Amino acid sequence: MQNPASGPRAVVLGIETSCDETAVAVYDGRLGLRAHRLYSQAPLHAPFGGVVPELASRDHIRKLLPLIEGVMATAGAAPADLAAVAYTAGPGLVGALLVGATVGVGLAYAWGIPAIPVHHLEAHLLAAFLEPDQPRFPFLALLVSGGHSMLVDVRGLGDYRTLGETLDDAAGEAFDKGAKLLGLPYPGGPALARLAATGTPGRFSFPRPLRNAPGVDFSFSGLKTALLQRVRALEAGGGLTEAARADLACGYEAAIVDALVVQSVRALEQTGHRQLVVAGGVGANRQLRTLLSDAVGRMGGSVYYPRAEFCTDNGAMIAYAGFRRLMAGAGRTGGPPGVVARPRWPLAELALRAAGSDA
Q: Which domains can be identified in the chain, with CATH numbers?
């Protein structure tokens, strides 16, 4: 990618509403990220132990327009300054997606600029380009979140080949379910990592599914079952103390992280790449970052991460992905804009389309 200071002066408003975070950002091709803001619905969903889709949609409706107004003011941007509005079109919760899509398309139509539907996973794959230290195409990407765990050969914008993915639970889902078994509050992943940091390594060991199997797929459902059995056994014997919970969290986290590291290294060896981009909410896990950096460093490679706030869902990655799509020719088809909201949208379908297409 070009240095933003020497890039084209195209300003894009990005809107993210795929799940339980309402996020907005303004990206400038010459100045870089000018402003971004995120509102998390975590407190709203905490009493239910997970995201309630209808509540998520309603809260997006309440928060989105004020966020847009605030971010535009912070960026010092007026509608006349914008070249496009980018919005998350999928995958995600259909009601939540429709809020961002209808607002994004409506604003773009009113302002006379293109509306660019963005694939949520592509935005995660490109999030590392928001940082000063950037990868170069091609590279390997480890995309790990609450809904996805996959290794992707990223050859260029819109050119993605999935090498491996989870056969059951995603890594983030495994973290959240494990946290719930240990009685931790929602959102569970960060809480489990904090508890694990106080535990004793090696007291409890958990299986490493698919470690010796061919390929680079993942499987995490067996870990959850193993943790459930350990918790029940300790409860029955009166041994589920705070120290034991911390030790269980430590061993459980180690098993998840080890699986991610082993398969990432294997995928690097298979592809010959020496650049690994880590994206998605689980990418903020400190243990994962440490062990991946060590393992890839021993291969003579480099690991690239977005900053922690851009690992989870955010508007900056949507604005940036929209900017890259705009530069590749998206939004130039003419005619009235359509609203795109795809709750299921395989990354492979995006790869089949030309990089300059609208979807």
A: 4-127+311-351 (3.30.420.40), 136-305 (3.30.420.40)
